[in-house]
Amino acid sequence: MAKYFTPLAGAALLLASGAASAQLGNGGGTYAGIDKVNTNPPAIVAGYIETQLEVLNADSKLLAAFGLGDQALKAGAEAGALTPGATRAQIESALKVQADSGQALQDKLAAKAPLNGQAAVEFSSAIGDLSRGLINEAGMARDLVEVRKTLTTNGGAAASVIYLSKALPGAARDLGKTLQAAVDYARANNITLPPVASEALSQQ
């Protein structure tokens, strides 16, 4: 039986996203870079989670705009489960959900399903959120390549940072493909694009 994204489910998703944002601060800040001299793995993980939260919530909104309720709720739930002290396993799970969400969205965009009214407005807003997430994720991915060369401690947050240094560049590239597909769709359908989208795509 087909499942539909109901107004009640949409309200639940927005509440979950809001709660997750409150958990980790503003959820939409600008990436400030990593201190490469005094490396602090727990702080790096917390900074990554802030960015991942923004990306997953943007994915939720983009998927919801197209009526992909199950995938939207999954991305929102993953965001709601993240904390600044996330383990490597939790980070791996978040990156997998990000990848799965991106693929589902790209498939839907390729089908050229129309968006009208409020759905188009929400889609435009979510492109801005995803763009800021990509800028932050790509910036962190670049910094972590350097940090990995000097990080000598093992276990805990340090192990998570080492994992991120290897996984995040690919995740950022895939995220860029998702954003490009969303931008192309918006242009083809006369949906307003936030200026930050061009900035984000220039980093690819």
Structural account:
With 204 residues, this protein is mainly α. The protein has one domain (39-201). Helices cover 74% and strands 0% of the residues. The protein contains 7 helices and no strands. Helix 2 runs antiparallel to helix 5. The model is unreliable at 1-28 (pLDDT under 50). Residues 1-22 form the signal peptide. Keywords: Signal.
Secondary-structure blueprint:
Elements: H1 7-23, H2 41-65, H3 69-81, H4 88-110, H5 118-150, H6 156-188, H7 196-201
Helix pairs in contact: 1-2, 1-3, 2-3, 2-4, 2-5, 2-6, 3-4, 4-6, 5-6
Beta strands, count: 0
Radius of gyration: 17 Å
Q: What order do the SSEs take from the amino end to the carboxyl end, as H and E?
A: HHHHHHH
Query: What is the rounded distance between the termini?
Result: 40 Å
Structure characteristics:
single chain, 204 residues, mainly alpha, disordered N terminus
Please sum up the structure shown:
By secondary structure, this protein is mainly α.
